[in-house]
């Protein structure tokens, strides 16, 4: 296929937001690298009265789900993330350029998923370092990739309620 045709196809679909996935991936990896190089495992530094930077390893999925399952979960979660990433790219390709918010949401989720997949494949765990808390209650630690996935998911939910297509009768 001619290069101009590829660029034209990318610019006329949600694929035009793939750059955002790359940015999320890079920011995620740079921040994880910085934590891994400057913090000892389980080290915690108070930043505000409700936020710490920490260095923890998550061998499971969200909220450390299946973190003590014996190792098989590494490849299980990697396979799921790769499958979902493929779906996201396909959905981005099928998303018309006019539907900006779903495409942005897909790009955020894709960048986050690939960031965590990279960790699982390279290290066998995901590096988490953001620790928010109220009093003695700590939200499970997370990272930039997790944040992008959550923001993307929220954008998809909001778009499903607020987009003109959602208001059209079926």
UniProtKB/TrEMBL annotation:
Its main location: membrane. Its EC number is 3.4.23.36. Keywords: Aspartyl protease, Cell membrane, Hydrolase, Lipoprotein, Membrane, Protease, Transmembrane, Transmembrane helix. Pfam families: Peptidase_A8 (PF01252). GO terms for cellular component: plasma membrane. It is found in: Cell membrane. GO terms for biological process: proteolysis. GO terms for molecular function: aspartic-type endopeptidase activity. It catalyses: Release of signal peptides from bacterial membrane prolipoproteins. Hydrolyzes -Xaa-Yaa-Zaa-|-(S,diacylglyceryl)Cys-, in which Xaa is hydrophobic (preferably Leu), and Yaa (Ala or Ser) and Zaa (Gly or Ala) have small, neutral side chains. The chain crosses the membrane at residues 17-35, 72-91, 103-127, 139-162. Pathway: Protein modification; lipoprotein biosynthesis (signal peptide cleavage). The active site is at 128, 146. InterPro entries: Peptidase_A8. It is a multi-pass membrane protein. Belongs to the peptidase A8 family. PANTHER family: LIPOPROTEIN SIGNAL PEPTIDASE. This protein specifically catalyzes the removal of signal peptides from prolipoproteins. This is Lipoprotein signal peptidase. The gene is lspA.
């Amino acid at each position: 296929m001619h290069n101009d045709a590829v660029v034209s196809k990318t610019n006329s679909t949600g694929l035009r937001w793939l750059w955002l996935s790359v940015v999320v991936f890079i920011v995620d990896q740079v921040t994880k690298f910085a934590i891994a190089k400057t913090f000892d495992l389980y080290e915690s530094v108070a930043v505000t009265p409700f936020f710490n930077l920490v260095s923890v390893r998550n061998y499971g999925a969200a909220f450390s789900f299946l973190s003590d399952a014996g190792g098989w979960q590494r490849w299980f979660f990697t396979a799921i993330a790769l499958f979902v990433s493929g779906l996201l790219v396909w959905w981005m390709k099928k998303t018309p350029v006019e539907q900006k918010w779903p495409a942005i949401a897909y790009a955020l989720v894709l960048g986050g998923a690939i960031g965590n997949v990279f960790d699982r494949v390279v290290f066998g765990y995901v590096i988490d370092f953001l620790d928010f808390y109220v009093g003695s209650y700590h939200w499970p630690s997370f990272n930039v990739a997790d944040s992008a996935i959550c923001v993307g998911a929220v954008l998809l939910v909001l778009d499903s309620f607020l987009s003109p297509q959602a208001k059209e009768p079926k």
